[in-house]
Design a protein that fits this description.
Helices cover 39% and strands 16% of the residues. It is built from ten helices and eleven strands. Bound molecules: NADP nicotinamide-adenine-dinucleotide phosphate (NAP). NADP nicotinamide-adenine-dinucleotide phosphate binds at residues 140, 164-166, 168-170, 191-195, 198, 211-214, 232-235, 271-272, 275. NADP nicotinamide-adenine-dinucleotide phosphate is lined by residues 140, 164-166, 168-170, 191-195, 198, 211-214, 232-235, 271-272, 275.
Amino acid sequence: MNIIDGKETARKIKQEIAAEVKKMTDAGERPPHLSAILVGHDGGSESYMANKVKACAECGFNSDLIRFDEDITEEQLLKEIQKLNENPDVDGFIVQLPLPKHIDEQKITEAIDYRKDVDGFNPINVGRLSIGLPGFRSATPAGIIDLLDRYGIETKGKHAVVLGRSNIVGKPVAILLMQKAQPGDCTVTVCHSSTKNLKEICREADIIVAALGRPGFVTEDMVKPGAVIIDVGTTRVPDATRKSGFRLCGDVDFDNVAEKCSYITPVPGGVGPMTICSLMKNTLLARKGLFNK
Ligand code: NAP
């Protein structure tokens, strides 16, 4: 069994991005600029945001964090998004989710100009992804594809089973895996809460991508010997022995599944670090004018 080290892969990719940015700035060009909007003070969102700002510094990007109180209205937030859409110095921006309940997340996602939508959530980018056109790929699925690529894992003709059909992970990763590309060219089955015989379907899988948010869901008896296991799950489970009071749990019963598979991503340190890396890659692409070519 081989561990897929997302932390190390992400470190290398950020180094490559930083080298490209240095070339840009040495040539007198301005570096990429990522803006981020954070509404409220949710603990999880604060720490994700801090990591994104840190990654920008590592890549040599300019970044700014725009904070609003929990009670900002939807109309005010839409105005702020419009300002960023029109700001020529901002290449890409993100609005950290989840948003307070009085704000319609879909409306916000659609208000972000698709040419600056480096999270890849705008329906235009999702649509372009589905038909194989250039666009910003949703960050976590793109990170998974990069891991398969960097580890030289053969995907052509393989049966990939994706557990979960969310718009940010399950659906886009299924689309990328079925794309006529390498990595890609898989035969994909997507499972969800109404799927019958989920265990049997998993046993047929050469690649399992688990994105359910159910700690330890994928057990050893669901895995074919030699399968590739990508664990996207990150559920905070209370843990009194940790300073934070919790630990992150994946969707895979790691200890037992690891012995049976050929490759596996750990949690933490697998898919997680790659997500931020994809955001950096998208921001660099935005700076280079992905949609202007
Ligand atoms: P989500 O929107 O809650 O979607 C979960 C999906 O799993 C749904 O499609 C649901 O089916 C399915 N599901 C849940 N329980 C199931 C069961 N018992 N049997 C079969 N299907 C089941 O979650 P998400 O946003 O995709 O996130 C999934 C996990 O990935 C979470 O732990 C999240 O924290 C993590 N995540 C990690 C990263 C990262 O960077 N590492 C990024 C994003 C998400 P239905 O559609 O039928 O309800």
